[in-house]
Amino acid sequence: IGIIGGTGLDDPDILEGRTKKYVDTPYGKPSDALILGKIKNVDCVLLARHGRHHTIMPSNVNYRANIWALKEENCSHVLVTTACGSLREEIQPGDLVIIDQFIDR
């Protein structure tokens, strides 16, 4: 399982037996090193979307490289978290929202 963590949601301590792996892809380097480990005996790969030290702005994230890197690690599923706001009044702070559309530039 691949996990792409956003702001504050990319803590490597959630993984047991962590190892760090730097990779390159046909699209360039992903946002940061992949952190490989396990959660309850399930193989997982954690990737900090904005880099471990939050140095990459959202418009500069190499999304294609991130997904390629997770695919190369045999991730069959990817969970992506984000902390952001909404212009829809019915969505309140703290609500869990699951998107069903994504536009890639």
TrEMBL record:
Record GO biological process: L-methionine salvage from methylthioadenosine; purine ribonucleoside salvage
Residue intervals of the Nucleoside phosphorylase domain: 1-104
Alphabetical UniProt keywords: Glycosyltransferase, Purine salvage, Transferase
Gene Ontology CC: cytosol
Superkingdom of origin: Eukaryota
Listed InterPro entries: MTAP, Nucleoside_phosphorylase_d, Nucleoside_phosphorylase_sf, Purine_phosphorylase-2_CS
GO terms for MF: S-methyl-5-thioadenosine phosphorylase activity
Family per similarity comment: Belongs to the PNP/MTAP phosphorylase family.
Protein name: MTAP phosphorylase
Species the sequence originates in: Dicaeum eximium
